[in-house]
Write a structure and sequence with these properties.
This protein is mainly alpha-helical. It has one domain. Helices cover 71% and strands 1% of the residues. The chain contains 20 helices and two strands. Strands 1-2 form a two-stranded antiparallel ribbon. α1 packs antiparallel against α2, α9 runs antiparallel to α11 and α18 packs parallel to α20. The chain is globular and about 65 Å long. The N and C termini lie close together (12 Å).
Length: 454
């Protein structure tokens, strides 16, 4: 590939990807998403054929796993056929967009491997889209209303919290990965990216994500953020110690960061009483046969909520999360091949399995288990989950062994999304599109094995 310049098709693909990152979870953008993914896939196909990137696909086992997943979706749609009409809508909607996203990601991954300098700034700015859009809208609404801190503001633009958790975590992961990269093999590549400005952008990105998670508020987001900061500190300490040890200034900075995080975390836990009774509530929730509140999930004032072992009424969030996850595990054991429809599997299967189960709400649609991995497994079965896990493991392991900057970033993002899928309701629509996008992106960036900025 000629790395001296980028042609207009390559520049357009990069800008379209940045815009896609920014608007992916925004409601009422389905036409724009289709346009970006469709045109992006066509441009990506031309780029892959023009530069021979398609040969790189043969060195990316993760892409073969993703191809197997698409094959399994077709088996469910045309052979098993639990609900043919609904499955066909998913095939021509969700899975068609996901296929476009994978093609787009494959070409973009190769471009970032060959030209990390040219693509980093627009892609990083695109990843900041969701936190910035939410935070600016929140501040404007607070000023206009005079309240300063609007309650339940996440419903104003993004309808629910999972989009904020997922795409806020992606932004935070990108920021942490770039900061850690200063101490890794990618340092030479970062020196040409105006590193001080990039560092400032990363710190700003983390601050905006923290603001978004606190103002939503979202416990899932704070858990993911704490895990990312912890992983970043461990990685930074390990890399710094492996190279030249710690100066007094570095030790002081690390101690200040750890102390600040500790004080902030303690303050957050004091102001979040639901964490204090989580274990007791969970012990009540796993007893599905002993109480039936999880079947109706009524929020009315007169509803008879269960009480935990301390005589406290269970926190509804703690209770439903654990109870529905437990119920989801039971359904997976009974339906190992999946229901065939990803976006509503738990609610549909629950109504068929348990009398009186309320599988669909008036506001949020079909019920989910609050674990993306469980919902995905209920939808497409254990074979599909195994294929995705194999793709994640293959892509991230190969990224660990390469010196490509964006393979390193892709590894952070892919593992972060995999973690988000454990604890958040993110198994449908653009969540799956974004997850498979970053798996394919990381796999191709690693398979190119270039990693030299020119």
């Amino acid at each position: 590939m000629d790395t001296s310049t980028l042609c207009w098709r390559e520049k357009t693909l990069i800008l379209m990807a940045a815009l896609l990152f920014a608007i992916w979870p925004l409601p009422h953008t389905i036409a724009l998403r289709w346009t970006l993914l469709g045109v992006g896939a066509l441009l990506a196909g031309w780029i892959m054929l023009r530069h021979g990137f398609w040969r790189t696909c043969l060195r990316a086992p993760a892409l073969w796993c993703i191809a197997g997943l698409f094959g399994w979706v077709c088996v469910h749609t045309f052979v098993i056929q639990a609900e043919p009409a609904t499955q066909m809508r998913e095939l021509t909607g969700l899975w068609a967009r996901t296929a476009c996203a994978v093609v787009m990601a494959a070409a973009l991954g190769c471009l970032t491997a060959y030209r990390p300098i040219r693509v980093t700034w627009p892609l990083v700015l695109g990843l900041m889209g969701t936190p910035l859009i939410y935070s600016m809208d929140f501040l404007v609404a607070g000023v206009r209303s005079g309240d300063g801190w609007p309650e339940n503001f996440f419903q104003h633009l993004y309808i629910n919290k999972p989009p904020l958790v997922m795409f806020g975590s992606i932004a935070a992961a990108a920021a942490m990965a770039l900061l850690v990269s200063r101490l890794s093999d990618q340092r030479r590549q970062l020196t040409r990216l105006r590193a001080p400005r990039l560092n400032l952008l990363c710190v700003l990105m983390l601050a905006v994500v923290v603001f978004m998670f606190l103002s939503a508020p979202t416990r899932n987001g704070m858990v993911i953020l704490a895990a990312l900061v912890g992983a970043g500190l461990v990685a930074a300490i390990a890399k710094k110690y492996a190279t030249k040890g710690f100066t007094l200034k570095t030790k002081a900075a690390l101690m200040a960061v750890v102390l600040s995080l500790g004080l902030g975390g303690a303050s957050y836990l004091r102001e979040s009483p639901e964490w204090h009774q989580f274990a007791a509530d969970a012990r009540v929730a796993i007893d599905l046969d002993g109480q039936q509140a999880w079947r109706t999930w009524d929020h009315s004032p007169n509803f008879a909520w269960p009480q935990n072992e301390h005589g406290q009424t269970v926190n509804y969030s703690n209770y439903f999360r654990v109870a529905w996850a437990t119920a989801g595990v039971r359904l997976v054991a009974e339906h190992p091949l999946g229901f065939g429809v990803v976006e509503s599997a738990f609610g549909r299967l629950g109504e068929k399995t348990w009398p009186g189960f309320r599988g669909r709400g008036e506001t949020y649609g079909w019920l989910a288990t609050h674990s993306g991995w469980l919902d995905f497994t209920l939808g497409l079965g254990v074979p599909a989950t195994v294929l995705v896990l194999c793709a994640v493991i293959s892509a991230t392991r190969r990224a660990q062994k390469t010196g490509v900057l964006w393979a390193h970033l892709g590894r952070w993002l892919t593992l972060t999304i995999a973690l988000v899928f454990v604890i958040a309701e993110v198994s449908s629509s653009y969540f799956i599109e974004a997850f498979l996008f970053w798996i394919a992106f990381t796999a191709m960036a690693s398979a190119c094995r270039v990693g030299v900025a020119r």
